[in-house]
Amino acid sequence: MAAKSDPLTGRRLDSWKEIAAFLGRAERTVKRWEAERGLPVHRVPGGGRSAVFAYSSELADWLKGKSQELDAEDAVSGEAEDRPAELSGAENTQPSAVSLTPVPALEIKRWPPSRLAAWLVPFLLAAALIAAFTSAHRPFRFKSQSQPPNAEAKDLYLAPDSVAVLPFTNLRGDADTDYLSDGITESLIGELAHVPRLKVRSRDSVFRYKGKDVDVQTIGARLGASILVSGRVMLKGNTIEISTELTNVRDNTEVWGHRYAGKSSDLIALQQQMAADIAQRLRSTLSSADREQVMRQDTQNAEAYSLYLKGRYAWNKRTLAELETAISYFNQAIAKDPEYALAYAGLADAYSVLPNYGGNPSEDFPKSNAAARKALELDPTLARPHAVLGMNEFEYNWDFSGAESEFKKAIELDPNDATAHQWYAEKLVQLSRRSEAMAEINRAHELDPQSPVITRVIGTVLTDAGQYDQAITICKQLVQENPTFPIAHDCLVYAYWGKQAYAQAVEEWKIEGQLTGNPDDAKFADALERGFRSAGWKGAMAAGARVHEARRKTGGESPLFIARFYADMGDKDKAFEWLDIAFREHDRLLTDLNVSPGFDNVRSDPRFTELVSKIGLTK
Fold first, then answer.
1. What's the pTM value of the predicted model, to 2 decimals?
2. How far apart are alpha carbons 294 and 311 in whole angstroms?
3. Which of 196, 173, 188 is nearest to 40 (CA)?
4. I need a labelling partner for 565 at 20 to 30 A (CA). Which of 3, 221, 361, 417 fits?
């Protein structure tokens, strides 16, 4: 059977024998490395301890800088003689990861294989993405499972490769306490992320199944998880009960379960104990330091914790009103416990996205930065505030090197944070570093394969690389699975725009405008449609420019949008008039200038080159 390949991680090795051959070591050596040194080997869900696989790029990255150390260790342990002769000595070379490079300009001459590979990789990558998404994203129905706890499982050592925490059920079923079940779920996801060598699926992925009957084998396969964590929460007056269990995806059996009960004021202690118990089941060799990290809570104030959960519940709804509500809750939590780092991190999150929903960038970004830095001052181990600082430095301060340092720090602290990889990928695209962007977004997808936002960014990367057909395939699949998700249609808008499939772009814009729930979006889409019917694409662009200019009189509409419409119509002077306004206003969307569709008519203009240089972008 031919070896499988992955868009990010290269060739898949499907046995200890293949892994050992790739590394040029004996099987017993690589098994020891996995146990003692964290060699990145994965378990086949439901396949037992010996059913393993690994990716060549992950192995290569792990091996970097370790060759001499491992050689010396082998010599001491006597394992050097187990290495295959053809891979030992001076001729042994360290395997290297797949290198993704941008597509170069076409030249009519014979190229060496290495340069030919630089051409082929992006195209093969796009094809692999399409295959992966069409096979892994199909509609399905869900049914619940309920089996009694397995009494024999109390000493079970699970050691799974990945886990999904399904949204806990609110047994009261009322909206007033929904924040509690959602918050416990989200907190548990964050706590289990500290378990070594364990991939924990993100909130975006698992909350798609909230309130649905779920067949564990189906959802496990979709999420790429071998163990599912599920639970129920019941709040009765001043008492709270939490029941949770672990289910083996392979055979649909419950392998462990427990019930926690106490006063509402005991919620933090209950949460800590539950996280520690589950972590211990997943890793029986969990060190005391790792256990302490899993159980760690930034506050022991029950009221502050409850307010924080309410803030996160509101933050996840992503409307202007709910974000303002979230900010209020986070501030109340801080008032209860001024040393509550996660509450400051929540403030940083809320203020960072507020400009997308009608906030004021000149006020919101500085507030977000201040909150993120306070969170890190209180708890330097937090990863997400670094990622937020990365976004803010990039979009608001145009400090691209500083932003990259923050993203790298976030990923260093939490390599499994899919959102950090996603945000970093988006910014790498804007810097025209498309191969690196594709590597980052594929890493995000590997960590969180069901996230619609991450899928949308894959479509963006392909669109910005000019691979419009591939982008359309990805975006259509996203729409099929998330027909009411506005940015799924936004994904298609820009892919169709880039391909100059204008009728389809207008249609997707219209659907998006209907789905956002914002009357202004619907009016904008209607204006585009009328303009397109009367005068084609130029008519649509003229209508779009008029709508956005009218909005400027009452709100903070981005000048970049207006400039883009004029540029695509071919009115260069008008386009640069609005681009100058965007620069004077420090429009945060200017960082998208190099890849935003619509500017092809002006990219060769010296004024465009000068603007790109002033912003600091690499053209």
1. 0.69
2. 22
3. 196
4. 361
